[in-house]
Specification:
Blueprint (H helix, E strand, L loop, with lengths): L2 H16 L6 H14 L6 H18 L3
Helix pairs in contact: 1-2
Length: 65
């Protein structure tokens, strides 16, 4: 499975959750973030994965998850 396929799978799985986010946040993920993540070249994937993992960790801390 390539990066684009992974992002498409995530989009499908979180589709309903996007509607539960405050106005604009879900739309931003759907129209900007996910499409941009699909275009990350393989050479940049390790750095992007590291950054995304760090962002997720910080969000977990912020929301006590």
């Amino acid at each position: 499975m390539n990066n684009q396929q992974r992002i498409e799978m995530i989009e499908k799985e979180v589709g309903e959750d996007l509607g539960k986010l405050p106005a604009g946040m879900g739309m931003l993920l759907k129209t900007v973030v996910f499409p941009q993540l699909k275009t990350v070249p393989d050479t940049e994937l390790p750095a992007v994965r590291e950054a995304v993992a760090h962002i997720i960790l910080m969000l977990k801390k912020a929301f006590d998850l």
